[in-house]
Design goal:
alpha/beta, Nucleotidyltransferase, domain 5, 2 domains, five-stranded mixed sheet, 19% strand, Transpos_IS110, Transp_IS110-like_N, transposase activity, DNA binding, coiled coil
């Protein structure tokens, strides 16, 4: 079976792509590397650039990317909605593979090539978007955890102020209001999580 793998290393503003092909005889070739803007225009250019480099038939074409924060999501959805096969790798999987190659220096160009190489050498699962309800729950819980950290930080500050010498009462008052605000927002998010779960019995 012949494969064409497009490795994608994605950052906030742009992403690097590296195309590798493997023919039935096992020969592996790098077809090209390029940087694109992490925008809808860049996504369209990536697909056009890839199609221009497919000069021979391939049984399987796969875009492979690393789950870098939220920066990969728009491109993943774009490719999926345009009927392309995608695989999304956890960062630790890419890291372990890189270590197995004894690569010490880490650059964006190397990363895109390594991600493509993983697709050549490993059998990867194709990615599908999570249902909107799961995505909503994930976003709500992520924000709740963030607010919880802020609340703990404010409580630690208040504790330090209460044990300090001549702390401003105004500052103490503001910090207490911050804690109350965080607590209220956390409660709102928890209620929203409950509402999403109740309206979707399969999530319970």
């Amino acid at each position: 079976m012949s494969k064409l793998i497009i490795g994608l290393d994605i950052a906030k503003d742009d992403f690097k792509a590296c195309i590798q092909s493997q023919m039935p005889d096992g020969e592996i070739k790098i077809k090209g590397s390029r940087t694109f803007k992490n925008t809808s225009v860049g996504y369209a250019e990536l697909v056009e650039w890839t199609e221009m480099r497919i000069k021979t038939y391939h049984d399987f074409i796969l875009f492979v990317m690393e789950a870098t924060g939220v920066y990969y999501e728009d491109l993943a959805y774009y490719l999926y909605e345009n009927d392309h096969h995608i695989s999304v790798l956890l960062p630790n999987k890419v890291k372990h593979f890189t270590k197995s190659l004894n690569i010490v220096s880490k650059t964006d160009k190397i990363d895109a090539r390594i991600i493509a190489q993983i697709g050549i050498e490993r059998k990867l699962k194709c990615w599908k978007p999570m249902c909107p309800q799961y995505k909503e729950l994930k976003a709500l819980n992520r924000k709740r955890l963030s607010l919880d950290k802020e609340k703990k930080r404010a409580k630690n500050q208040l504790h330090a102020m209460n044990h300090a010498h001549k702390t401003s009462e105004s500052v103490i008052g503001v910090t207490k209001k911050q804690i109350e605000f965080y607590q209220h927002q956390i409660q709102v998010l928890e209620e929203q999580v409950e509402a999403v779960i109740k309206s979707n019995p399969e999530l319970d």
